[in-house]
Amino acid sequence: MSDWNQTGPARVKETAEAVVRDKALELFDFAVRPQGGKLLVTVTLDKPEGAVTLDECTAVSRELEARLDAQDLIGTPYLLEVSSPGLDRPLRNLADCLRFKGRLAHVVTREPLAGQTSFRGRLNGVLEGAVELVAEGGKAHWIHFDRVKEARLVVEF
Asked: What is the rounded CA–CA span in Å between residue 26 and residue 52?
């Protein structure tokens, strides 16, 4: 198992990246962790031009499972979970904020800014390491991304 801990997760991630790339998708997130006597391999997919479909998740899951089993990369029972970031996806960086310009977001800061740590508004742009959120009523908040604890899109109906 010590060999697994040193190289196993990286080799599984490389295989996942190859499968995802072959399907013209992006690897949004990847994790391997123990769960109930097995390993849980979590692969989160993304694509720049829109939402990831259930069919795309299924195709990646089947192909990745086949490659992992054929190469015997894990060598222990595992569960494979393939999904998309979801409608309330995290905003991990300024590029994500720019990509989703115009969408409603919720941002929580590490320390208070102007007396508050929770901000909700439309993503309106980025400049010099900061994201602009325009709240209902038109008030603009510039938040440096290095001060962000958590940022997510808000689901609108």
From this structure: 10
Task: Round to whole Å and give the CA distance between 130 and 93.
Answer: 10
- For residue 104, the domain's CATH number is 2.30.30.100
pLDDT 10s digits, 7-30: 688 999 999 999 999 999 999 999
Residue 33: which CATH number?
Answer: 3.30.300.70
Number of H helices, E strands in the chain: 3, 8
Residue ranges of the alpha helices (H) in the chain?
2-22, 54-71, 94-99
The residue segments making up the domain with residue 141 are: 94-153
**Are the CB atoms for 119 and 109 separated by under 8 Å?**
yes
Phi-psi region of 29 (alpha: psi -120 to 50; beta: other; left: phi over 0): beta
